[in-house]
Amino acid sequence: MAKEMYKIIHTSCMGTLINFNNKNILIDSIISPNILPYPTVNKDILMNMVQKNTPFESIDLILITHEHKEHFQPDLVCQILSACLEATLIAPKAVIAEMRKSKYFKKRFITQLISIDLDDNKSIDLSIKNIKMIITRLMHDDQSKYKHVQNIAFLIYLGEHRILHVGDSLPDISIFRESELINKDVTCLIVPFIFLITESGVEVISSINPRYLLATHFPLSEYDTNKRFENAQEIKNNSLSPFPKNTYLLTESMSEVLLK
Prior knowledge:
Layout: E1 6-12, E2 15-20, E3 23-27, H1 43-51, E4 61-63, H2 74-83, E5 88-92, H3 93-101, E6 113-116, E7 123-128, E8 131-137, H4 143-146, E9 152-158, E10 161-165, H5 173-178, E11 188-192, H6 194-197, H7 199-208, E12 212-216, H8 228-237, E13 246-249, E14 255-259
Helix pairs in contact: 1-2, 2-3
Protein backbone atom coordinates (compact mmCIF):
# COMPACT_ATOMS: atom_id res chain seq x y z
CA MET A 1 0.00 0.00 0.00
CA ALA A 2 1.44 3.40 -1.02
CA LYS A 3 2.25 5.78 1.81
CA GLU A 4 -0.03 8.79 1.97
CA MET A 5 1.62 12.04 0.86
CA TYR A 6 1.20 15.31 2.69
CA LYS A 7 2.40 18.34 0.78
CA ILE A 8 2.46 21.93 1.97
CA ILE A 9 3.11 24.64 -0.63
CA HIS A 10 4.02 28.17 0.41
CA THR A 11 2.22 30.61 -1.94
CA SER A 12 3.23 33.98 -0.41
CA CYS A 13 3.46 35.80 2.93
CA MET A 14 1.42 33.39 5.12
CA GLY A 15 -0.32 31.82 2.14
CA THR A 16 -0.44 28.03 2.30
CA LEU A 17 -1.76 25.25 0.09
CA ILE A 18 -2.17 21.90 1.86
CA ASN A 19 -2.54 18.84 -0.34
CA PHE A 20 -3.45 15.43 1.08
CA ASN A 21 -5.15 12.48 -0.55
CA ASN A 22 -6.51 14.62 -3.42
CA LYS A 23 -7.81 17.23 -0.96
CA ASN A 24 -6.67 20.83 -1.42
CA ILE A 25 -6.94 23.38 1.39
CA LEU A 26 -6.00 26.98 0.63
CA ILE A 27 -5.16 29.31 3.53
CA ASP A 28 -4.55 33.08 3.32
CA SER A 29 -3.37 32.79 -0.29
CA ILE A 30 -5.73 35.15 -2.13
CA ILE A 31 -4.28 38.50 -1.15
CA SER A 32 -3.75 42.09 -2.22
CA PRO A 33 -1.17 42.76 -4.97
CA ASN A 34 0.42 45.52 -2.86
CA ILE A 35 1.37 44.41 0.63
CA LEU A 36 4.86 45.86 0.97
CA PRO A 37 7.09 45.14 2.80
CA TYR A 38 5.78 41.58 2.39
CA PRO A 39 5.83 39.43 -0.76
CA THR A 40 2.49 39.11 -2.52
CA VAL A 41 1.06 36.26 -4.55
CA ASN A 42 2.15 36.07 -8.19
CA LYS A 43 -0.55 36.88 -10.77
CA ASP A 44 0.21 33.61 -12.55
CA ILE A 45 -0.64 31.72 -9.37
CA LEU A 46 -4.00 33.49 -9.12
CA MET A 47 -4.70 32.68 -12.78
CA ASN A 48 -3.85 29.03 -12.11
CA MET A 49 -6.44 29.01 -9.34
CA VAL A 50 -9.10 30.41 -11.65
CA GLN A 51 -8.16 28.12 -14.54
CA LYS A 52 -7.72 25.08 -12.27
CA ASN A 53 -4.17 24.43 -13.36
CA THR A 54 -1.76 22.32 -11.31
CA PRO A 55 -1.67 22.28 -8.30
CA PHE A 56 -5.09 23.95 -8.05
CA GLU A 57 -7.17 21.44 -10.04
CA SER A 58 -9.77 21.56 -7.28
CA ILE A 59 -9.96 23.58 -4.10
CA ASP A 60 -11.99 21.96 -1.35
CA LEU A 61 -11.58 24.60 1.35
CA ILE A 62 -10.57 28.26 1.33
CA LEU A 63 -9.63 29.33 4.85
CA ILE A 64 -8.98 32.96 5.77
CA THR A 65 -7.58 33.89 9.17
CA HIS A 66 -8.57 37.59 9.19
CA GLU A 67 -9.28 40.61 7.01
CA HIS A 68 -5.85 42.25 6.70
CA LYS A 69 -4.68 42.73 3.12
CA GLU A 70 -1.68 40.41 3.33
CA HIS A 71 -4.15 37.63 4.20
CA PHE A 72 -7.22 38.51 2.12
CA GLN A 73 -8.39 40.56 -0.86
CA PRO A 74 -12.20 40.61 -1.29
CA ASP A 75 -12.45 41.13 -5.06
CA LEU A 76 -9.93 38.40 -5.82
CA VAL A 77 -11.49 35.99 -3.35
CA CYS A 78 -14.91 36.50 -4.96
CA GLN A 79 -13.52 35.90 -8.45
CA ILE A 80 -11.76 32.71 -7.43
CA LEU A 81 -14.76 31.48 -5.44
CA SER A 82 -16.88 32.06 -8.54
CA ALA A 83 -14.52 29.83 -10.56
CA CYS A 84 -14.33 27.15 -7.86
CA LEU A 85 -17.88 25.96 -7.35
CA GLU A 86 -16.62 23.02 -5.30
CA ALA A 87 -14.95 25.24 -2.68
CA THR A 88 -16.26 26.09 0.77
CA LEU A 89 -14.90 29.28 2.32
CA ILE A 90 -14.50 29.57 6.11
CA ALA A 91 -13.57 32.94 7.58
CA PRO A 92 -14.32 35.45 10.36
CA LYS A 93 -17.46 37.54 9.97
CA ALA A 94 -15.41 40.66 9.09
CA VAL A 95 -14.01 38.86 6.02
CA ILE A 96 -17.49 37.83 4.88
CA ALA A 97 -18.72 41.40 5.39
CA GLU A 98 -15.91 42.75 3.15
CA MET A 99 -16.70 40.15 0.50
CA ARG A 100 -20.34 41.27 0.42
CA LYS A 101 -19.18 44.80 -0.49
CA SER A 102 -17.30 43.54 -3.56
CA LYS A 103 -18.80 44.08 -7.00
CA TYR A 104 -17.90 40.46 -7.72
CA PHE A 105 -19.97 39.04 -4.87
CA LYS A 106 -22.77 36.70 -6.00
CA LYS A 107 -25.87 35.66 -4.10
CA ARG A 108 -25.13 32.00 -4.74
CA PHE A 109 -21.96 32.30 -2.63
CA ILE A 110 -24.18 31.97 0.43
CA THR A 111 -24.09 28.19 -0.04
CA GLN A 112 -20.28 28.25 -0.07
CA LEU A 113 -19.65 30.47 2.96
CA ILE A 114 -19.23 29.68 6.66
CA SER A 115 -18.91 32.76 8.87
CA ILE A 116 -17.03 32.47 12.18
CA ASP A 117 -17.71 34.66 15.22
CA LEU A 118 -15.87 33.65 18.39
CA ASP A 119 -14.68 35.22 21.63
CA ASP A 120 -10.96 35.25 22.45
CA ASN A 121 -9.46 31.78 22.98
CA LYS A 122 -12.76 30.05 22.25
CA SER A 123 -13.06 27.24 19.73
CA ILE A 124 -15.54 25.30 17.68
CA ASP A 125 -15.16 21.84 16.13
CA LEU A 126 -16.14 21.47 12.49
CA SER A 127 -16.16 18.53 10.11
CA ILE A 128 -16.67 19.29 6.44
CA LYS A 129 -15.88 17.24 3.34
CA ASN A 130 -14.46 14.53 5.61
CA ILE A 131 -11.97 17.00 7.05
CA LYS A 132 -12.01 17.63 10.80
CA MET A 133 -10.96 21.04 12.12
CA ILE A 134 -10.77 22.94 15.37
CA ILE A 135 -11.28 26.66 14.72
CA THR A 136 -10.00 29.00 17.44
CA ARG A 137 -9.90 32.74 17.90
CA LEU A 138 -6.41 33.82 18.99
CA MET A 139 -5.56 37.43 19.75
CA HIS A 140 -3.86 39.26 16.91
CA ASP A 141 -0.28 40.39 17.46
CA ASP A 142 0.11 44.03 18.54
CA GLN A 143 -3.07 44.36 20.60
CA SER A 144 -2.60 48.13 20.86
CA LYS A 145 -3.60 48.35 17.17
CA TYR A 146 -5.57 45.19 16.50
CA LYS A 147 -7.53 44.42 19.65
CA HIS A 148 -10.83 44.10 17.77
CA VAL A 149 -9.53 41.93 14.90
CA GLN A 150 -10.84 38.37 14.95
CA ASN A 151 -7.75 36.34 14.11
CA ILE A 152 -8.72 32.73 13.50
CA ALA A 153 -6.36 29.76 13.86
CA PHE A 154 -7.14 26.55 12.00
CA LEU A 155 -6.13 23.15 13.39
CA ILE A 156 -6.65 20.66 10.57
CA TYR A 157 -6.72 16.90 11.08
CA LEU A 158 -5.39 15.07 8.04
CA GLY A 159 -4.58 11.39 8.41
CA GLU A 160 -1.72 11.05 10.89
CA HIS A 161 -0.98 14.79 10.87
CA ARG A 162 -2.50 17.73 12.73
CA ILE A 163 -1.58 20.99 11.01
CA LEU A 164 -2.00 24.28 12.90
CA HIS A 165 -1.98 27.61 11.04
CA VAL A 166 -2.13 30.45 13.58
CA GLY A 167 -2.59 33.46 11.28
CA ASP A 168 -1.18 36.62 12.89
CA SER A 169 -1.53 35.32 16.43
CA LEU A 170 0.07 37.04 19.38
CA PRO A 171 3.09 34.91 20.40
CA ASP A 172 1.93 34.48 23.99
CA ILE A 173 1.92 31.10 25.72
CA SER A 174 -1.05 32.06 27.92
CA ILE A 175 -3.50 32.24 25.00
CA PHE A 176 -2.31 28.89 23.66
CA ARG A 177 -2.80 27.36 27.09
CA GLU A 178 -6.23 28.91 27.58
CA SER A 179 -7.35 27.76 24.13
CA GLU A 180 -5.82 24.30 24.85
CA LEU A 181 -3.99 24.28 21.53
CA ILE A 182 -0.79 23.14 23.26
CA ASN A 183 -2.57 19.89 24.16
CA LYS A 184 -3.61 18.87 20.64
CA ASP A 185 -0.48 16.92 19.60
CA VAL A 186 0.19 19.29 16.69
CA THR A 187 2.61 17.73 14.20
CA CYS A 188 3.04 20.73 11.87
CA LEU A 189 2.99 24.33 13.09
CA ILE A 190 2.73 27.28 10.67
CA VAL A 191 3.57 30.62 12.27
CA PRO A 192 4.75 34.14 11.41
CA PHE A 193 8.48 34.73 11.88
CA ILE A 194 7.98 36.65 15.12
CA PHE A 195 7.47 33.33 16.91
CA LEU A 196 11.05 32.32 16.09
CA ILE A 197 12.83 35.48 17.21
CA THR A 198 11.08 36.31 20.50
CA GLU A 199 11.32 34.50 23.83
CA SER A 200 7.54 34.35 24.11
CA GLY A 201 7.22 32.87 20.62
CA VAL A 202 9.93 30.27 21.25
CA GLU A 203 8.09 29.27 24.43
CA VAL A 204 4.94 28.65 22.39
CA ILE A 205 6.85 26.55 19.85
CA SER A 206 8.57 24.51 22.57
CA SER A 207 5.27 23.90 24.39
CA ILE A 208 3.47 22.75 21.24
CA ASN A 209 6.54 20.69 20.26
CA PRO A 210 5.70 20.07 16.58
CA ARG A 211 7.61 17.69 14.33
CA TYR A 212 7.55 20.31 11.56
CA LEU A 213 7.85 24.07 11.98
CA LEU A 214 7.10 26.38 9.04
CA ALA A 215 8.00 30.06 9.51
CA THR A 216 6.36 32.58 7.19
CA HIS A 217 5.42 36.27 6.83
CA PHE A 218 9.03 37.42 6.36
CA PRO A 219 9.46 40.84 4.72
CA LEU A 220 11.12 41.01 1.33
CA SER A 221 14.91 41.01 1.70
CA GLU A 222 15.28 44.63 0.54
CA TYR A 223 12.85 45.73 3.29
CA ASP A 224 14.23 43.48 6.03
CA THR A 225 16.23 46.26 7.69
CA ASN A 226 15.94 44.60 11.10
CA LYS A 227 17.34 41.34 9.68
CA ARG A 228 14.36 39.23 10.75
CA PHE A 229 15.23 36.41 8.37
CA GLU A 230 18.91 36.42 9.37
CA ASN A 231 17.98 36.34 13.07
CA ALA A 232 15.61 33.41 12.57
CA GLN A 233 18.17 31.54 10.51
CA GLU A 234 20.87 32.02 13.15
CA ILE A 235 18.62 30.57 15.85
CA LYS A 236 17.57 27.70 13.58
CA ASN A 237 21.17 26.78 12.73
CA ASN A 238 22.50 27.06 16.28
CA SER A 239 23.55 23.72 17.79
CA LEU A 240 21.30 24.50 20.78
CA SER A 241 18.34 25.53 18.64
CA PRO A 242 14.97 25.04 20.36
CA PHE A 243 13.32 24.28 17.02
CA PRO A 244 12.58 20.85 15.56
CA LYS A 245 14.94 19.31 13.02
CA ASN A 246 12.31 19.86 10.33
CA THR A 247 12.20 23.67 10.50
CA TYR A 248 11.67 25.65 7.30
CA LEU A 249 11.96 29.40 6.75
CA LEU A 250 9.63 29.97 3.80
CA THR A 251 10.20 32.95 1.54
CA GLU A 252 10.14 31.53 -2.01
CA SER A 253 6.72 31.32 -3.66
CA MET A 254 5.55 27.76 -4.47
CA SER A 255 8.28 26.14 -2.37
CA GLU A 256 7.18 22.73 -1.08
CA VAL A 257 7.48 20.88 2.21
CA LEU A 258 6.66 17.19 2.38
CA LEU A 259 5.37 15.80 5.66
CA LYS A 260 6.28 12.19 6.35
